[in-house]
Design the sequence.
């Protein structure tokens, strides 16, 4: 499986200037390539190939007086910038034709030097990991890296990023083997919420930390100071950086907490089931700030990749399952209930239910039902790919692997 490892990088003043130059050159090449393709499209010309575009905006541009400074940075940075443009176009075309699932992808846009996030990407020809623990980047130098954890394998590419808080990061994408944990018999369903971040099927409730709400007073003061600064001034740039650093602290605390809680759940359960929530839709309601503060999507994504990494099963149930309306004891649907009703009694069996615990138990039951196939046998783990004969629906006259003949 493929995982990303991020490490903090601490460049000195000359290295920061070299990285700023590399960021700017990569941005200019990206914009030149995008402009060339847009002009070709407007003129009715065919789509420019990557090799022709590279000759035009890199090789030929370096010989001109107005783009001669492109030769002061590594050519690997410039080539990878055009590859990123090609990837953006490919994702856009796949989205338009319906080959790409999920939300529609917009066409590539021009990058701005005022963007708070700048990045460059290098392949193996543009960087080296030194024996002394530094990261050598071509025409930048040896960067000091804080190795918070060992890199499990050699990476073929690295992305150096500067975020809005003026922090530098080195990101490596590594192909690693799964690390299977001992198998367990416990399974759980998770009901995500706002008053309690998560409620498990065994009745355990995880309180919502509300990192953004706790930092609101300081953020309010910093944002007020930012609004009083003149636009374009150095004081406004300093105030913007303070606001960005405070937001970064909130995001880091939330991410660290998500990692710890998701790791506990994966270690303690062989199978984990959650509800497929429409977070993007809930983020447009009056509960938007609380929904974004909870970070459900990030937490669910962590559960999914950690389950695949450690040999656990992860499943999602449909968002329209009436988990809060069905009695988990007898299965009777008792009808919808307003949000202020936190406990209710089943009219059929008389069981008193905690709303969230009952929903988590129903999520567990629905997840187990989805995991079973038509014959009642459990489906293979997600880490083991399905065989060719298992995919799809058998045609008439065929026999399935379970020995069932389809008429």
Sequence:
């Amino acid at each position: 499986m493929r995982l990303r490892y991020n490490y903090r990088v601490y460049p000195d003043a000359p290295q920061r200037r070299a990285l700023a130059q590399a960021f700017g050159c990569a941005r200019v090449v990206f914009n030149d390539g995008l402009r060339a393709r847009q002009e070709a499209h407007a003129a009715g010309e065919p789509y420019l190939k990557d090799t022709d575009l590279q000759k035009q905006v890199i090789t030929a541009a370096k010989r001109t007086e107005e783009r001669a400074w492109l030769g002061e940075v590594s050519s690997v940075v410039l080539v990878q910038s055009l590859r990123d443009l090609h990837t953006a176009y490919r994702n856009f075309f796949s989205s338009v034709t319906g080959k790409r699932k999920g939300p529609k992808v917009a066409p590539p846009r021009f990058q701005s030097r005022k963007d708070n996030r700048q990045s460059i990407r290098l392949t193996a020809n543009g960087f080296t990991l030194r024996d002394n623990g530094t990261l050598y980047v071509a025409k930048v130098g040896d960067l000091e890296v804080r190795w918070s954890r060992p890199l499990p394998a050699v990476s073929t590419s690295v992305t150096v990023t500067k975020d809005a808080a003026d922090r530098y990061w080195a990101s490596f994408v590594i192909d690693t083997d799964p690390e299977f944990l001992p198998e367990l018999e416990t399974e759980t369903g998770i009901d995500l919420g706002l008053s309690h971040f998560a409620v498990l099927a065994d009745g355990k409730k995880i309180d919502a930390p509300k990192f953004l709400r706790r930092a609101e007073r300081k953020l309010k003061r910093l944002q007020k100071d930012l609004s009083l600064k003149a636009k374009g001034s150095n004081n406004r740039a300093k105030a913007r950086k303070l606001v960005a650093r405070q937001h970064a602290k909130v995001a880091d605390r939330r991410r660290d907490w998500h990692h710890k809680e998701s790791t506990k759940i994966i270690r303690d359960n062989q199978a984990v089931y959650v509800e497929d929530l429409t977070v993007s839709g809930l983020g447009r309601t009056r509960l938007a700030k609380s929904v974004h503060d909870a970070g459900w999507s990030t937490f669910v994504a962590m559960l999914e990749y950690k389950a695949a990494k450690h040999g656990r099963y992860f499943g999602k149930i449909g968002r329209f399952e009436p988990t809060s309306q069905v009695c988990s004891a007898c299965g009777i649907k008792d009808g919808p209930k307003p949000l202020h009703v936190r406990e209710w009694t089943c009219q059929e069996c008389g069981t008193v239910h905690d709303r969230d615990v009952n929903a988590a138990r129903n999520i567990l039951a629905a997840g187990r039902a989805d995991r079973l196939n038509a014959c009642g046998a459990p489906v293979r783990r997600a880490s083991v790919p399905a065989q060719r004969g298992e995919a799809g629906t058998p045609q008439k006259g065929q026999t399935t692997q379970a020995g069932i003949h389809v008429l």
